[in-house]
Amino acid sequence: MTTKTWRPLTAGCCRVHDQVIAGKLPRFRPNRPEFSKKIAQLSSFRRLSASDVPDSPSTTSEALTHAFAPGLHVFSLGELRAITQNFCGGFLLGEGGFGTVHKGYVDDRLRPGLKAQAVAVKLLDVEGLQGHREWLAEVIFLGKLRHPHLVKLIGYCCEDKERLLVYEFMPRGSLENHLFKRISNSLAWGIRLKIAIGAAKGLAFLHGAEKPVIYRDFKTSNVLLDSDFTAKLSDFGLAKVGPEGEDTHVTTRVMGTQGYAAPEYVMTGHLTTRSDVYSFGVVLLELLTGRRSMDKSRPKREQNLVDWATPYLTTTRRVRMIMDPRLEGQFSVKGSRAVAALASQCVNPKLKARPPMHVVVEVLEGLQHLRDMAGNAPPAPLTQTYRTQRAARKPFSEHVHKV
Ligand SMILES: Nc1ncnc2c1ncn2[C@@H]1O[C@H](COP(=O)(O)OP(=O)(O)OP(=O)(O)O)[C@@H](O)[C@H]1O
Ligand SMILES: [Mg+2]
């Protein structure tokens, strides 16, 4: 296949009600002049399926759909304005580094055959080339990849300078909201495990693809939850096709989110599927502890979750010390110990020591049946139990504690 030069369709700025949307999270992203320089320098840099992108200044959204995503709907800006009530604040679902996300409704009056459903419309802040590139990556990857643990892309809009994406609506929002924003009850242990398994399956699917895909931005805000807490990965803007042939890694600009990116990737730009395994380990730690991967509001030695938690991951007693207080002791002791051990392997600084994602899935699935909840009273010494029972005049057998 010949490699063609990719040209941006446009490079503009996307505004909502004349208000430029600002990014909120710290990311490793070079500014534009720096970005152009780096692209020229790194010979091994490969854009996402760049060789497949039509090399024509007249590339249209229709050409894009034919080339990559025949199943996707192409919407006009007017249509998306209509279904989101003109992107009004009442329909705002959230805001990320690339723009705002709004709720809307579609049905077959909009497109014949379109299922009546709620959707999430992401309005990209296409500040320069990068925003466009991330939009394109999302269309290319999510247009082609379909899996129960990847959020479904329904369509997109590419009109003048505007870039939008239309996804299936995920009723429970992001894992980040549930873990860290006190919007709802704490997630129960079993639900945390279910979410970890779902997200792990999503990553395992990407890594096991014929051309492995490195997700590169695995974090709690990119894990979205269905009504039954089925986890789905969203945001493929930073995803890359993995190394091919003899290559062990892809070399690329360092992008991602502070606190989640693997140390070797941050230091060298060498990206492998094991970089995602590291990020997955960080999210496992967040699920265990209820702490953010990076929290500047904590004392200095507690700010980086991996650094802080690592010494606690080795014994059952120590693991119990760092468990999320919101669980109120309602977690499996053996399960938490095993998840801690797994997280510790995933965040191992040596990337070869990190398990592949299909192994991670197997380990996590093996923990689902455990019911040794820590919140049950620990077994008291026999003599004391016996005395208590006599006082209560109850048969001894009723009080035997099962672990
Ligand atoms: N398909 C969806 N269904 C429901 N809510 C969604 C959907 N997609 C995104 N959201 C909501 O919008 C928020 C913002 O998402 P977005 O991906 O733009 O940013 P982010 O993941 O928070 O940050 P970043 O830009 O660093 O990825 C999410 O945290 C989630 O609450
Ligand atoms: Mg996101």
UniProtKB/TrEMBL annotation:
Its EC number is 2.7.11.1. PROSITE patterns: PROTEIN_KINASE_ATP, PROTEIN_KINASE_DOM, PROTEIN_KINASE_ST. ATP binds at residue 122. Keywords: ATP-binding, Cell membrane, Kinase, Membrane, Nucleotide-binding, Serine/threonine-protein kinase, Transferase. Gene3D superfamilies: Phosphorylase Kinase, domain 1 (3.30.200.20), Transferase(Phosphotransferase) domain 1 (1.10.510.10). Coiled coil: none annotated. One of its GO terms (molecular function) is ATP binding. One of its GO terms (biological process) is regulation of lignin biosynthetic process. Pfam families: PK_Tyr_Ser-Thr (PF07714). InterPro entries: Kinase-like_dom_sf, Plant_Ser_Thr_Prot_Kinase, Prot_kinase_dom, Protein_kinase_ATP_BS, Ser-Thr/Tyr_kinase_cat_dom, Ser/Thr_kinase_AS. Residues 87-367 form the Protein kinase domain. GO terms for cellular component: plasma membrane. It is found in: Cell membrane. Belongs to the protein kinase superfamily. Ser/Thr protein kinase family. May be involved in plant defense signaling. This is non-specific serine/threonine protein kinase.
